[in-house]
Amino acid sequence: MALFFRRNFSEELDRLNQRMEELKATLAKAAETSKQQSNGLEVKFTLAQRDLDKVATNYRSAIVNCNSDYQRKKLLKGYEEVIGCLEQISTNSIDHTQVTAQIAELQKSNKNIPGLEALSRVGNALAVAFWLGVFTISIVAMTLSIASIPADPVGGVAFAAVSFGLMGYSYYEMFNNFDAIFEPKQVYQNRLQINSDAMELLKHADEAYQSPVASF
Q1: pTM for the whole thing?
Q2: Distance between CA atoms of residues 165 and 169, nearest Å
Q3: Helix ranges (DSSP H) in 38-96
Q4: In terms of CB atoms within 10 Å, which of 83, 125, 182, 207 comes out highest?
Q5: How far is Cα 216 from Cα 212, in angstroms, rounded to an integer?
Q6: Handedness of CA 12, 95, 214, 197 (dihedral sign)
Q7: Coiled-coil intervals in this record (predicted)?
Q8: Contacts of 97 by beta carbon, 8 Å cutoff, 6+ apart
Q9: What is the pLDDT of residues 56-65, one digit of tens each?
C-alpha cells in the first residue's frame, strides 16, 4: 500500500476516477432527460450507470490491492481505455469503431486468461521441484554440519544453524507453491470479472447512446 502511494499511482487513479465520475453524471443527466422526454431510453441509461459503478469499483479495488507494478500498470491502462471508449460513445454515438475494438480486445483478454492461469500453475510446479531440491540439500548439509561439531564446534554449530534456516525457508516455499498449484488463482478470476463487467458496460452504454433521440 505504501508503495502504491509513493509511486504516484494514486494520483493517476484519482484522475481516472474523476473522469469516471463525470461520465456517471453524464449518464444520470441522460437518464433524467430520457424520463422527461418519455423516449424509452431511461432504463438503458440507468443500466449503463449501474454498470459504470460496478466497473469503477472493480478497477479501483484491483489497482489498489495489486502487489505487482507491472499488473497495476496494465490495470490502469485498461481502466483508461474503457473510460476513453465511454467518452467517445457519449460524444460520438454514430462511430462504433472504438467500442467494437475495445470489446474485442476484452474478449481476447478473457480467452487468454485460462492459458495464463495454467502457465502460472506450471511455474508453481517448477518452483516446488526447485525448493524440494534445496530442501534436500539443506538436510544433507545440516547432517554433515552436526557430524562436524565434535571436530569444529563453532563452525559446525554455525553451519548447522544456516542449514536449518535454509531447510525451514525451502520447506515453506515448497508447500506454498504446492498449494498454489491447486488453489483458485484469484488474480485471474478477478481479471475475468473486470473484463466481463467492462464489456457489459460498453455494450449497454453504446446501446443507449446509439439511438437517434439520445442527443444530450
Answers
A1: 0.75
A2: 6
A3: 42-65, 69-91
A4: 83
A5: 11
A6: negative
A7: 6-33
A8: none
A9: 999 999 998 8
